[in-house]
Amino acid sequence: MTDQICRWGILGTAGIARKNWKAIRLSGNARVTAVASRSVDSAARFIEECSSQVPQPGTPEPVGSYEALLDRDDVDAVYIPLPTALRHPWVIRAGEAGKHVLAEKPAALNSRQVEEMLRACRENGVQYMDGVMFMHSQRLPMIRGLLDDPAQIGSLKRIAGQFSFAGDEEFRTSNIRVHSELEPHGCLGDLGWYCIRFFLWVMNGQTPTEVRARILSSLQGQTSPQPVPGEFSAELTFPGGVTASFYCSFVTENQQWMHVSGSRGYLRVNDFVLPFHGPEVDAFVGQDTFFADNCSFHMENHLTRHSVREYDAGQTSAQEVRLMRAFSEIVISGQTCDTWPEWTLKTQRVLDACFESAQQDGAPQNL
């Protein structure tokens, strides 16, 4: 590290890396020093295109292999947006090379792989974190305050959510997310991961005691050996009787909502993963009332908007920038944080149980 700046290397040139390239630049305590691809030309093209819109301090170096990037002395942390099937070996290699690791989700093919990845990072004294951006939003502390206020939601009873988008023909035939060898979990891994994480966060890290899940429809890319989940639903039961359900899909148009129900009211977030464009993020608390007087019947909607000032993306207050800033602070401090790997492992274990249940036609899986 130089002058309290975390120096980043990027392993791979996936589209999401462009968003995080900008987030690193805006973080105030980090910069990109190198980008690796399977060819120098590909890495150089990625750097040129990103730099044309968001230049980094100095020009990052294009690197023609992932191994060569991990060998560099000017890289403190690596961001790994590689396909899920490739994350396990490269996270371990990064940890063994002494590089802190921020990796995309789902973390790996299964929880056993995640345990091995986390062990490699822990034994080499480096930080691991997954790339769930909403965990770093200022909206979450606001929502926690609402959930913990007995006058708002009351006793928690039920959580429900949906995260979906309708992929076009090119997506359905050639995107890696419909390739069983690269992304075998399909929409469950790409979208359901976020739903599971939000449930776990609402439940203060408690894991469900039982899950039941089903693959509602499948997709299979042209070069994919097997189909992957295209639509997926799951029902989760938590300690204390709280239940939760989610639906995720590659064939249903954009939705990303969460609804938390309690004994006194409900809380709704309409954009829990990717905040709607604007300078604020919000959540709504409803305490609707039913009124009946002889022949007059009415349901009254009482909805209160709660918000914090935070841009949706591409600004210093945005959640992806806060993620990069927080991770870089950990690297600069020299002290790792166990909380982030724990979130990842819990999420992966629940995802594994959902996937296993769906493979068994909805048979219950106990955690």
Quick summary of this structure?
Helix content is 34%, strand content 29%. By secondary structure, the chain is α/β, with parallel strands linked by helices. The strands form 3 sheets. The protein has a 9-stranded mixed beta sheet with strand order 16-13-12-11-7-10-9-8-17. A 6-stranded parallel beta sheet has the order 3-2-1-4-5-6, with helices on both faces. Strands 14-15 form a two-stranded antiparallel sheet.
Characterise the protein shown here.
This protein has 367 residues and is of the alpha/beta class. It folds into two domains: 6-134, NAD(P)-binding Rossmann-like Domain (Rossmann fold), CATH 3.40.50.720; 137-318 and 347-366, Dihydrodipicolinate Reductase, domain 2 (2-Layer Sandwich), CATH 3.30.360. 34% of the residues lie in helices and 29% in strands. The chain has helices at 15-26, 40-53, 66-70, 84-96, 111-123, 139-148, 169-174, 187-202, 319-333, 339-359, and strands at residues 6-11, 30-36, 61-63, 77-80, 100-103, 128-130, 156-166, 210-219, 228-237, 243-249, 251-262, 266-269, 280-286, 289-293, 296-300, 303-309, 365-366. Strands 16-13-12-11-7-10-9-8-17 form a nine-stranded mixed sheet. Strands 3-2-1-4-5-6 form a six-stranded parallel sheet, with helices on both faces. The protein is globular and about 75 Å long.
